[in-house]
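Example 507.
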Amino acid sequence: MAVYKVNVATGDVLQAGTNNSISITLVGSRGESRRKNIRKKLVDDELEILKEHRQKELKARQEHLLPDAGKGDRWVPRVSSPTSRGEEGPVAGGQLGADIQPPPLVPDYVARHWREDDFFGYQFLNGNNPIVIRRCTALPPKFPVTPEMVAPSLGGGTHLAKEMEEGRVFLVDYEVLEGIPSGTIHGRQQHVTAPLCLLHQSADGLLRPIAIQLSQTPGPASPIFLPSDSEWDWLLAKTWVRNADFYSHQLLTHLLRTHLFAEVFAVATLRQLPSCHPLFKVRSHLRATPLVSLGVTGGHWGALEALGVTVGHWGVLERGLESVTYTSLCLPDDIHHRGLSHLPNYHYRDDGLRLWEAIASFVSGIVDFYYGEDVVVSGDTELQAWVMDIFTNGFLGRTSSGIPSSLQTVQELSKFLTMVMFTCSTQHAAVNNGQVGQGTSDPSKNLPIQPVPMLEGCPHPSPVHVGRTSPTPSGERPHPPHPHARELSPSLSSPLLSSPLLSSPLL
Ligand SMILES: [Fe+2]
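Predicted structure in complex with fe (ii) ion:
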């Protein structure tokens, strides 16, 4: 039998190489040999010298990527040195778009419409943070909205219980921000709210807010705001929700759930899979997103300084990580879990599911080719070490998350790989790419705003709705107070109007 020696060369310049799959087929006059793929699982390497080579490669990488046990330092998703900016750093929200000039279409539209209820609701579906809204089938006790409060917003011939039962009421809850310490900027104490917002899908299919509470504790200091309040009060209530959404988006939806998880997947891949492993190619789908993590000390962190550098940031990240589930990372499951399969105009869902299916189809082809049977998956010790590394060091071994610690079937492997690739590509694009267009044109997003006058001693108990009488932007007389409203102390209206937000040229 003839022996052929094949050399594959990709050049000797920096980063020369290939992410393509290389295979060899011997073509002769009487036919072709079976396609021989160079990538191999551990079990495919029959020669001891090749097995040793795999182990040596991993050992060399792990020396650089394993934590230093002597310092008690555990490898966890890593945030890049936000502490270097110091407590009094400048507000840098505008830096997000400093080097990128987006087409003016989106910023212009946002600047013209950000105050409108329709656009406020639309942003929960297709804005930068489309993963926090969920169907509301029963109001939580901490948000005591009464049917009478929202009846005018629902229209005639229906009521709140009926709308909830038929799937037209939705809730956004920023509980993760409750009690998070806030920082100071130029000596001024900042404030962060943990609001609840109830939304309704109207007969025209549009989503609109119908009630807002700016804290998690109902009571005298936390009234429920309604669209029938005065224009300024309703606008500022929405602004505080949008402001909380900014923190939730930037720290959790964007940084934690795409950048830092991509870092988890990338490091585990480098630590546990030799370059000849068939799934080592997954790293080519992980390269861009974690690398950007190294640059989050710019506009991202600057805009988040109202939370207080380190304490507030880490508190939100730790809480966010505790609540991450495997379901929430897999779009089809996530949509079903949040009860949003039927909601119209949810383009994030519709486009995302198409891309999820495309990735799943691609992944299935690769997995079926290399694995084929469940026993091959469960028997791949390198693959199992990879999954366990992600489970242990990325998700801190929390079984309640549903994140698998091992993979037993071809189907399980395909779903897990699809989740990894979707998170680092599609999901990141969905929550990242709109920042410049939407974020920089909406004054309620990048600005730490202050103070929270409605939380500073309002004497009116919840669930009694509090109507407002502060002047409207145009100087018109305020809307009539809600039938159940009581007048607020005039002293609480002036801080609203002195907010730096209101001096924005966009207003
Ligand atoms: Fe990003």
